[in-house]
Amino acid sequence: MVALIDYGMGNIHSVKKALEICGGKVLVTNNPEDVLAAEKIVLPGVGAFDDAMRELEKQGLALVIKNAVKNNKPFLGICLGMQLLFEKSEEAKAKKGLGILKGVVKKIPKGDFKVPHMGWNQIKINKEDNCPLLDGIIDGAYVYFCHSYYPVPHEIKVIAATTEHGINFTSIVHKKSVYGAQFHPEKSQGVGLKIIDNFLKVC
After folding, report:
1. Which of 22, 55, 79, 147 is the catalytic position?
2. Are 157 and 145 spatial neighbours (Cβ–Cβ below 8 Å)?
3. Annotated catalytic residue within 147, 165, 174, 186
C-alpha cells in the first residue's frame, strides 16, 4: 500500500490516478499511523514552503516522515514535496525543511527565460547514480515542470538527473530509499508513468 500524504498542499487527484494506473494500491491520508503502516510514501506539493512545513508539523507528519526514511521505507517527494526534503529554502521566512537531504532550495534567478519554469523540458541523467526511478528512461526524456525554486544538494552524489532552464539545476535526487522529482511525473505522460511504475517496484 502507498500512503499518499494529503496535507492540503498537493495535486492529490492526479497523483493518485497515476499511481493507480501503474497498479499501486493508494491510501490518501494525513494520519501518521497510516503513513507508518504503509509500504511506500509519496509526498506531493504545490504552494509555499513555509505553509507546507507548518501543515506537516501541525498534523504530526514531519517526524513520521523522518522516522520512515530512517527505516529505509521508499519515499518519493514531488515538486514542493521534493524541496521539503532539504534543510531550508530561500522562499521560507519561518520554517526549516525536513533536513533529510543536506542542501538548500533557491529561487530561479531572473534572466532571458520565464519564471516560473512551466512546461516541458528535458532531463539529463547521471548514469553513475543508477537511480532505479530512471530504469528504461532515455537520456534527454521530456517531463513537465511548474516551479520557481530548485534544490541545491550539498552532496553531489545524490543528483540523479539535471535540467537546463537558464541555469543547470537538479531535477531528480536519489539517496538510498529516498527519491525526489522537481517535475510532475503525474503530468509527464508515458515517461512520468514509467517513473511512477519504477517507484512502485523499488524495495
Report:
1. 79
2. no
3. 186
55-110: per-residue pLDDT in tens?
999 999 999 999 999 999 999 999 999 999 999 999 998 899 999 999 999 999 98
CATH of the domain at 63: 3.40.50.880
Q: What is the pLDDT of residues 6-46, one digit of tens each?
A: 998 878 999 999 999 999 999 999 999 999 999 999 999 88
In the chain the beta strands, taken as DSSP E runs, fall at 2-5, 26-29, 40-43, 75-78, 88-89, 103-107, 117-122, 124-125, 142-147, 149-153, 159-165, 167-175, 178-181
- pTM beyond cutoff 0.70: yes
Establish whether 164 is a catalytic residue: no
Q: Is 186 a catalytic residue?
A: yes
> In total, how many domains does the chain have?
1
Instruction: Note down the domain range covering 76.
Output: 2-201
Cα-based torsion angle of the residue sequence 181, 183, 184, 190 in order, rounded to the nearest 10 degrees: -90
